[in-house]
Write a structure and sequence with these properties.
The protein is 41% helix and 13% strand. It has 164 residues and is α/β, with parallel strands linked by helices. The chain has a 4-stranded parallel sheet.
Length: 164
């Protein structure tokens, strides 16, 4: 059974699709495609069915990542099939933990930047770039990439533990 991870932001058009695309690329590079499933969602349904923000797509594609995406809203029943729910900021983390049906499900919710050792002792939120310029999207990508290595290391250990 694959290890399943879902990245979550507010509308699922900026931060979480960026994290999904970057992390999926890391999973493939590590030879774990098939062993790890990656997707994303939003805490709210404002953009359900829409593609990612064009600025997100532009930054992703400019850096060699896939920009294809369709927004959707996170559902409480998904906790049962997910191993890890990665929130992009503390507000998402609180909303997801409130939505969790059980304490075990709430414990699956983690902040993305908690996997970046250089972010320790700092604000662990990935700022929302939506209302700003392209530099905010570039900054978002840098934060996502920085946290992805640590997250991949943790998940690789989980996947290896399942295979034993």
């Amino acid at each position: 059974m694959p290890y399943r991870v879902c990245f979550v932001c507010t509308g699922n058009i900026c931060r979480s699709p960026m994290a999904e695309s970057v992390f999926r690329a890391r999973v493939v590079e590590a030879g774990l495609d098939g062993a790890v499933e990656v997707d994303s969602a939003g805490t709210d349904g404002w953009h359900e069915g829409d593609g990612a923000d064009p600025r997100t797509v532009s930054v992703l594609e400019e850096h060699g990542y896939d920009g294809g995406h369709t927004a959707r809203r996170f559902r409480a029943e998904w906790f049962a099939r997910l191993d890890l729910v990665v929130a992009l900021d503390a507000g998402h983390q609180r909303a997801l933990r409130r939505l969790a049906p059980t304490p075990e499900d709430a414990a699956k919710v983690r902040l993305l930047r908690s996997y970046d050792p250089d972010a320790a002792g700092h604000d662990l939120d990935v700022p929302d770039p939506y209302y700003g310029g392209m530099d905010g999207f570039e900054e978002c990508l840098e934060m996502v990439e920085a946290a992805s290595a640590g997250l991949l290391a943790v998940i690789e250990k989980q996947v290896e533990g399942q295979a034993v």
